[in-house]
C-alpha cells in the first residue's frame, strides 16, 4: 500500500491521547455473516429441538445440501443460529478480534481513515461497518476523531442482522436509542428510512442500524469490513474425472453424535458456474455472497465517492481447503454439533480484487500483512506513548496485546489488509501513496 510511513496526522494524535484501558484476551478471530435482506416477522417462530435435528430432517427429506446452505443455517437461523442469540466474543466466547484485544488496532485504523479521507474530501462522510461485532472498532475510531475535533462531519451506519449483537453495539456506543419497526406499514411508507434502530453517542454522533448494506444512504462513505467476509457462506468444489463436482453435506445414519458428513455431487451443480475456466487447483472454495457485496460496494464508491478497507485472514487465490469451526478458541470440526461453534473459511483476496477492479471501477492496494500495515501507520510510536506513566502490570498487558496483533506467529502475517479506492483517483494515489 505504498511506502508512506508515519503520517504527520499521527504525530498530533499521540501527543494528545491518554491510554485507554482494554482487557487482555486470548488470540482468536471474529466472524460475522451478512444477508441481503432479513424479515424476521415472516419466519417460523417455533424453536427446533436443536439445529442438528432441523438440518437432519431437511436433508432426510430433500437430500444433501451445499456447504453454503449449511453455513447459513448454522450461523444465522433466526431462532438457534450461532450469531443470533448470544455474545460469541471474548474469553467466554469462541474467538477474539484485534479491536477486542487492544485499543491500538482501532486507533491505527482511525488514523488511516483520517489520513486518506482528508486527501480527497473535506465534507461530511459516513462510516459504514459491515458486521461490527460488539462495536469496539467504531468506538475506538470515534474516540480518535473526537481528539481531532472531527465528529461534526461523521455519521455511523452499521450493517447487522443479529438482534443480540445489535443490542450489544447500541449499549456500548449510544447514550439514547430509538427502535424502528421495519415491518410496520407506516414505517414502510417512508422510503427514505431504511434503518431499524437509531442511536446517538454521548458526543452527539448519530448511529444507524440496517439489515442490508443496500439500505445505507448513498453518500461519500468509508466502508470497513473487519473479519466480515470470512464468515460468509462458501461453496466447496472438488475436481474429479467427471469434471468439477460440488462437496455437499449429508446425514450420518445411526451416528451417536450430532454430526454430518461430506459427499460429492454426482455431476456438476449450478454453483460450478462460479468456477473460472483457467482454475488450476484441485479443490476450491468460492463465496458468491462475498462477490455480490464487493460488486455492490464497487458501484457505490464509483458513484458516490469514498473508499473501503478490508481486514481479514485469507490468501491470494492459492489456498484450497480452509473451511473449519472454532469452539472455545480451538479449531473444531464444522460438521459436529452445528450451532455450538463458529464456522469460517479463509478470504480469497484475489477474487475480491478481480471483482472490485472489474470495468475499471476501483483500484486495489494490497493485500499486505497486518503487521506491515499497522507499523507504517506508527503503531510502535503509539505503543511507546501508552507505556509512559503506567504501572508495570499495565505495561506488560499493553506489550502482550501489541505482540498478539503484530507477531508473525500470531496475527501479524496471518491477517491481511486490502484497501479499495475509485479508479478516478489512480493518478492522485500514484503521486500521494496510500498508506
UniProtKB/TrEMBL annotation:
Main location per the UniProt record: mitochondrion
Pfam families hit by this protein: Methyltransf_28
Keyword Methyltransferase: yes
Protein's UniProt name: Protein arginine methyltransferase NDUFAF7
EC number from the UniProt entry: 2.1.1.320
Molecular function GO terms recorded: protein-arginine omega-N symmetric methyltransferase activity
Origin species: Heterotrigona itama
Coiled-coil residues: none
Free-text function comment from the UniProt entry: Arginine methyltransferase involved in the assembly or stability of mitochondrial NADH:ubiquinone oxidoreductase complex (complex I).
Transmembrane segments annotated in the record for this chain: none
Keyword presence, Transmembrane helix: no
Compartments (UniProt record): Mitochondrion
Family in the record: Belongs to the NDUFAF7 family.
Top-level class of the enzyme under EC nomenclature: transferase
Keywords annotated in UniProt: Methyltransferase, Mitochondrion, Transferase
Catalyzed reactions per annotation: L-arginyl-[protein] + 2 S-adenosyl-L-methionine = N(omega),N(omega)'-dimethyl-L-arginyl-[protein] + 2 S-adenosyl-L-homocysteine + 2 H(+)
Amino acid at each position: 500500500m505504498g511506502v508512506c510511513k508515519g503520517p504527520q496526522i499521527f504525530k498530533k494524535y499521540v501527543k494528545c491521547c491518554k491510554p485507554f484501558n482494554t482487557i487482555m484476551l486470548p488470540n482468536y478471530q471474529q466472524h460475522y455473516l451478512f444477508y441481503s435482506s432479513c424479515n424476521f416477522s415472516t419466519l417460523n417462530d417455533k424453536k427446533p429441538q436443536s439445529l442438528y435435528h432441523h438440518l437432519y430432517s431437511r436433508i432426510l427429506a430433500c437430500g444433501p445440501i451445499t456447504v453454503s446452505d449449511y453455513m447459513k443455517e448454522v450461523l444465522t437461523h433466526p431462532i438457534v443460529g450461532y450469531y443470533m442469540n448470544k455474545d460469541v466474543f471474548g474469553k467466554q466466547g469462541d474467538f477474539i478480534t484485534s479491536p477486542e484485544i487492544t485499543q491500538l488496532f482501532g486507533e491505527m485504523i482511525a488514523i488511516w481513515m483520517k489520513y486518506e479521507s482528508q486527501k480527497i474530501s473535506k465534507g461530511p462522510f459516513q462510516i459504514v461497518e459491515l458486521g461490527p461485532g460488539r462495536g469496539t472498532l467504531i468506538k475506538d475510531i470515534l474516540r480518535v476523531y473526537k481528539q481531532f475535533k472531527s465528529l461534526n462531519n461523521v455519521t455511523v451506519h452499521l450493517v447487522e442482522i443479529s438482534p443480540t449483537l445489535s443490542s450489544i453495539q447500541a449499549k456500548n456506543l449510544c447514550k439514547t436509542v430509538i427502535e424502528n419497526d421495519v415491518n410496520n406499514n407506516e414505517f414502510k411508507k417512508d422510503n427514505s428510512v431504511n434503518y431499524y434502530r437509531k442511536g446517538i453517542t454521548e458526543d452527539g454522533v448519530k448511529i444507524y442500524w440496517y439489515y442490508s448494506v443496500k439500505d445505507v444512504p448513498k453518500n461519500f462513505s468509508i466502508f470497513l469490513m473487519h473479519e466480515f467476509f470470512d464468515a460468509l457462506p462458501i461453496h466447496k468444489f472438488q475436481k474429479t474425472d467427471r469434471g468439477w463436482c460440488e462437496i455437499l453435506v449429508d446425514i450420518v445414519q445411526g451416528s451417536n453424535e450430532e454430526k454430518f458428513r461430506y459427499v460429492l455431487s454426482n455431476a456438476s451443480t449450478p454453483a460450478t458456474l462460479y468456477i473460472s475456466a483457467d482454475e488450476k487447483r484441485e479443490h476450491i472454495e468460492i463465496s458468491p455472497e462475498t462477490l455480490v457485496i464487493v460488486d455492490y460496494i464497487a458501484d457505490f464508491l464509483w458513484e458516490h465517492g469514498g473508499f473501503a478497507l478490508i481486514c481479514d485472514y485469507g490468501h491470494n487465490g492459492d489456498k484450497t481447503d480452509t473451511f473449519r469451526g472454532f469452539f472455545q478458541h480451538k479449531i473444531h470440526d464444522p460438521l459436529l454439533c452445528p450451532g455450538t461453534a463458529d464456522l469460517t473459511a479463509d478470504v480469497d483476496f484475489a477474487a475480491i480484487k478481480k471483482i472490485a477492479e472489474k470495468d475499471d471501477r476501483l483500484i486495489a492496494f494490497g493485500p499486505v500483512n497486518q503487521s506491515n500495515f499497522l507499523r507504517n501507520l506508527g503503531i510502535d510510536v503509539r505503543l511507546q506513548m501508552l507505556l509512559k506513566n503506567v504501572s508495570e502490570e499495565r505495561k506488560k498487558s499493553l506489550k502482550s496485546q501489541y505482540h498478539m496483533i503484530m507477531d508473525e506467529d500470531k496475527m501479524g502475517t496471518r491477517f491481511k489488509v486490502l484497501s479499495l479506492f475509485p479508479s478516478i483517483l489512480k493518478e492522485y494515489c500514484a503521486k500521494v501513496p496510500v498508506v
